[in-house]
């Protein structure tokens, strides 16, 4: 549940922390990938069970680049104290309004836009080197 900042400057809508919003988008993309993987497993079983389809490779599904453009307005910014000794400043938490009802009530000059881009990266595992034959 998003934390409500001390006082929102626009409307009665509850602002959300910007980092929570980004994490929610990431969770949604991962959930979609999980759903696709589960469907692929079911399709693979159907291919195995069908004599004609068993000769073919089952289809694979992938999520390509995901771009999400979010309009928002800053509701509040909080600076938290750093727990590290050498850090000069703490972290900043930004709370934002993203719901269309709140944004409709605001002047256009306070509304910004951010684009979140998620691109899958294929990682290939490196073969482990066998040092058992190396003599010391």
What does this protein structure show overall?
The chain is α+β, with helices and mostly antiparallel strands. The protein has one domain. The protein contains two helices and four strands; from the N terminus they run E-H-E-E-H-E. The protein has helices at about 20-50, 100-105, and strands at about 15, 65-80, 90-95, 110-120. Strands 1-3-2-4 form a four-stranded antiparallel beta sheet. The termini are far apart. Mean pLDDT is about 80; it is low at about 1-10.
Radius of gyration: 24 Å
Which percent range describes the beta-strand content?
15-25%
Describe the global form: flat
What is the succession of H and E elements?
A: EHEEHE
The structure class reads alpha+beta
Termini, distance in Å?
58 Å
Low confidence ranges: 1-11
Mean pLDDT: 82
Entry keywords:
four-stranded antiparallel beta sheet, 136 residues, single chain, flat, disordered N terminus, 27% helix, 4 strands, alpha+beta
Question: How would you sum up this structure in a few lines?
Answer:
The protein has 136 residues and is of the alpha+beta class. It has one domain.
Explain the layout of strands and helices.
Elements: E1 16-17, H1 18-49, E2 66-79, E3 92-97, H2 100-104, E4 112-118
Antiparallel strand pairs: 1-3, 2-3, 2-4
